[in-house]
Amino acid sequence: MSSLDFxxxxxEERDTYGEIVARSFGFDPGDALPWVRGFxxxxxxxxxxxxxxxxxxVVYRAGQWFGGRRVPMLGVAGVAIDPPFRGRxxxxxxxxxxxxxxAEEGFPIATLYPATQGIYRRAGFEQAGSRFEIRVxxxxxxxxxxxxxVRPEALEDRRAIEELHRRHGARYPGTLDRSEPLWARIRHxxxxxxxxxxxxxxxxxxxxxCFAASRPHSNHRLELHVSDYVVExxxxxRTLLAFFGAHASLADEVVWYGSASDPLLALLPEQRGRVTxxxxxxxxxxxxxxxxxxxxxxxxxxxxxxxxxxxxxIAANSGRFVLDVSGGKAEVRSGGxxxxxxxxxxxxxxxxxxxxxxxxxxxxxxxxxxRDLALAGVLFAGPPPAMPEIF
Length: 391
What we know:
Layout: E1 4-7, H1 11-25, H2 29-39, E2 44-49, E3 52-66, E4 69-81, H3 90-104, E5 109-112, H4 117-122, E6 126-137, E7 149-152, H5 158-171, E8 176-177, H6 180-187, E9 196-202, E10 205-216, E11 222-231, H7 234-245, E12 251-258, H8 263-267, E13 274-285, H9 288-294, E14 303-310, E15 319-326, E16 329-334, E17 340-343, H10 344-352, H11 357-362, E18 366-367, H12 370-379
Parallel strand pairs: 4-5, 11-12, 14-17
Antiparallel strand pairs: 1-2, 2-3, 3-4, 3-8, 5-13, 6-12, 6-13, 7-9, 9-10, 10-11, 14-15, 15-16, 17-18
């Protein structure tokens, strides 16, 4: 009788998984193998049956911002089962074993971009945030006067850029607190030219940055591709749009990624940008207590929610819990009446603020008295959760 084993791979098993990644996603093996090896065995897991690697996944160890606080997070990527062994439930087994193992490691949440949703929903993930592509004709970036100096990034600027990004994350839920591999992907996006960093600097210091590169588009013209940007002031936003507009002699459009309510769009003189939903990412609550106590809440608000959560994969997340919120922080303890009932998937969508209490009730991901539902909506509300990067 065969048995399945979810584990850290040997070097040989890791390379077999790298070949599965190449076959699954259409990568050149010469690209897939170095990519997998770059994660190291400690960040790679495989599903093995009788000594044969069926598939695996890799993880980024980082953080994600919610309610103004950083929550430790695992970014899951490269989920693949070898084509001959698909259709037998192995992907579901892989993901359910993964969430149990990562919960035991102490991570509160995990995030991923799904190629298909059913597998991940069976493992307790739910839609939790968006990634929009934003395109603006450079002819509309008509800001001529730069109020700040724009200069190329130097090596000694990296700490300042990372600090700007952390402050940005505290304001915008869903933002990643990037590890070095994730920063490397901002500077060297896959299948794109290397992106150069530019700082927006005034007399009092740096007020923003962007990472950008020109790439071929059509009819021998270019487009300006921006992998990441942060602005902390209106003049930084105007200076950045002017910087974009300076590329208009060779490029027709600038493209970047983020939220549908991106602040740069509000500064344009006319509504000529195109905003396209590219991806909806999913989140999994791995450790309910740590997740709820790790994120932030409205500081001027004190409240109590009595929850009953169902999680058929991680037993410690199932049961009744009391969430006490005060001064922007929360404490969680067992007990209470369970007045607000949620599946762990519904809790994920509530946790990020992606689905309102109205939508959660409509989809039967949450049930309870309308007052409890409305209170939950207030506690977890915020700007739309979004990420510029994909992993």
